[in-house]
Amino acid sequence: MDMGIAGRTALVCAASKGLGRGCAEALAAEGVNLVIVARTKETLDATAAEIRAKYGVDVKALACDITTPEGHAAALAACPAPDILVNNAGGPPPGDFRDFTRDDWIKALDANMLTPIELIKLTIDGMIDRGFGRIVNITSSSVKAPIDVLGLSNGARSGLTGFVAGVARRIAATGVTINNLLPGTFDTDRIADTLAAQAKAQNISLEEARARRAKALPAGRFGTPDEFGRACAFLCSVHAGYITGQNWLIDGGAYPGTY
Predict the structure, then answer these.
(1) Which of 4, 181, 14 is nearest to 90 (CA)?
(2) What is the count of structural domains for the chain?
(3) pTM above the 0.90 mark?
(4) For the stretch 179-194, what's the b/e string if a residue is b when 16 or more beta carbons lie within 10 angstroms of its beta carbon?
(5) What is the CATH number of the domain that holds 56?
(6) Is the domain of 212 the same as that of 241?
(7) What is the pLDDT at residue 146?
(8) What pLDDT does 91 receive?
(9) Does 159 share its domain with 206?
């Protein structure tokens, strides 16, 4: 299927690896030019070079902290008129809510709620003026089914979800859509770190920890960044103009509810 977005420009956050890179690659495969953002310059530059060589699109790499005002300004200077915005940031650490400080909460809110909102604010009017825009926020399956040890993530990402629910409908007639992608267990560095900690705590091998986690999923496996990216590319396509304000759960069937 031709997604109809060749020649468009996308700003993709936290795109040097993992789910952000999956989204960047899927968009590049559709002929979308990219500005990709992450903190680590070496990894980001390598990713940009690989995507550029593989897909033949223009890829600009910007190493910055996208959660800061300076990062916001730098991203918009590098990509002043994006047609597509993919918001993404690493999740806050797990823990007991009793141990979270005010600073912990502010950091979580800055990364997983306030930064996406600010980037939406900075880009949405241009999209509306041009009559086309796609905004996709990578959040978490915890928005659908809260995870007890991820209180910071549950709170911050749920705040973003509520914000999107209102704004997406307010601008639905303009040609601009806003949707959220809710990943479950994907084969990324984040799950690798979690599994390593679990393996150590349970005195089992990393391979056994991976096998146990995969077996617990109805799909019997972890998701891949590639398939996550393709879902993102579809939401960014011309075919998804009637989909807005939605939370797409991509978790291999892990969520047990009917709705």
Answers:
(1) 14
(2) 2
(3) yes
(4) bbbbbbbbbbebbeee
(5) 3.40.50.720
(6) no
(7) 85
(8) 83
(9) no
